[in-house]
Amino acid sequence: MVREEQVFDVFWEGPFSITEDIKLSKSCENHVLYAIYSTHPLYGKNQLVYIGMTLHGIERRLRQHMPWIKFESDLIQVYAASIGKFTSWYLIDNMDKKREEYPRYTYKKDIEAIESLLAQYAFQGLVFPGIANVMDSGKVSHFR
To answer: To which H or E segment does residue 47 belong?
Structure first.
């Protein structure tokens, strides 16, 4: 059985502040993916520190992150995304107005797959080569 390939478009909006912008933004109602940017101890300011998914709204999910977010000393910025099945470049290229977000997508397995793919590529190269080699060799299991 041949499975038809599915292509998704991830439509990001932001940045939003962790407080008022998310609460005030009606556009965040349909978003199922989010990325949190802050200061990373090795890589500096405005770095991706977390990427996640939610089926219950970005604002609600971000409240669950507050136990660690409240200790961040620098500005926290959040990007939120809606997803939809990609149809054609023609439709995207020939839109008269700004590309709109997609309606809330609720198929959890697709959202999890997209989140996993984004996390895999977003964090590539964020580990020093020496540590990455030790991790790949399996000699230090607590790094995993």
So the answer is: strand 44-53
